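Section handout 9: paired folding examples.
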Amino acid sequence: MKIDFKKILIALLLISAVSTVLPLPASKENLLGYYSHCTFTPWSTAILILTALCIFFYSKKVIKNA
């Protein structure tokens, strides 16, 4: 059984992106105006999702060209 680390990494990045927008008690408001896990919510969520997409499309391109 081969472990696909790319899929695990993509899943972890997407789970992290979702966890940044969850409303949780925090010391400061985020940029959207509510208290959440991460105070940089719109930016951190976008960065995590874009990183996951880059890994996904890069791995598809590498597999296609191999």
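Moving on to protein 2 of 2.
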Amino acid sequence: MTNQSKPESLSSADPAAQIESLQAQVKQLQLAAAASEQRYGMIINSAVDYGIITLDAEGSITEWNEGAVRILGWGTDDMRGQPIACIFTESDRLAHMPQKEMGLALSQGRANDERWHLRNDGSLFWGSGEMMPLRDAAGALHGYIKVLRDQTQQHLDYQKHKADADFMESVLSASGDCIKVLDLEGRLAFMSEGGKRAMEVSDFNDIRGCPWPDFWEGDGNVDAKNALAAARVGQTGRFQGEAATFAGNPRWWDVQVTPINGADGQPERILSVSRDISALKTAEKVLELSEHRYRSLYNALDHGFCIVEVQCDDASYPYDYRFLEVNSAFEHQTGLKNVVGQWMRTLAPEHEQYFFHRYAEVARNGQPARFEHTAKCLGNRHYEVYAYRMGEPEQRQVAILFRTSALENAKNSGAQR
């Protein structure tokens, strides 16, 4: 002991003085400890938005602040000695979540706690916080401290936002359109799942940040830049163009480009929606070819051909028809010129009512009709006629294939002789 330092109070040779000095120091330390504990308690209990719970090494509650009383509903005296598991749901208790949380706190220094918890009245709240081990200066475990907040409303808001986002994602994924978000410079920032399928993109990261107009060539590139410029100033741009997928397959697209406005009402990003219209374009080409063949066929005929729209009064009495389309032989067969868009009563006011009735009947009942009749006001020509309805009854359109009859030809031949 000769080499160890001694407290100054022990240097006196009077044993009574030594005891009195030690008692004074102990009392001073006790008062300091009490003051420190009081300050600690005041700090802990002032944190009313946080439930602060201390546990012993076995997981039993030793302290419970005012915040925990407010959030969970139990008083401090009611909870001392109770297992922390009592604030966990039954399913979490069965899954041994309290023990797992303490184990994680020991192994990693802290354990995050984001789950539903029980209140005194049996209701649930979403607790967000963490648990940490309490150790003394030597590192020995004395227990745990658990801190949590009631984040129920924030959790419900998050769940609603997530549900809305998941719903929108499912909608975007289900859509066959190529939906893209661009920055104001026109660089790709997002592409929907349906868009990646349509454009045959395997990994969007390969094209993220690429200039969107560069995917178009020729007139399409000009149209894309113009549509982008319109969206930048709050307008809508639209065009149709041809662009290949990333697998190199040619496609036709109908494209709409619109601004995405920020909180200030000004465009901050751009939405581009491209719909694959390749099938429609193919059908248009087939139709165009078909119409070309159809016109070539009917223009090659020596029969006259026309499509008319029958006009009726309120009592369904037919009094006129208008020419919508004629072939090249029409003029030769009738002697009428430049008739498209004109009414028959204007061209030939005395034209026989018989023709009007027959065409109206075809338009009404949809049954084709064959007949012969003479048109005195058209040079006394005698016609062989085949008429059939075009489209729906309410359109009152009739296609007419006709020619002068063999009798008419014989008369004309006799007159020439």
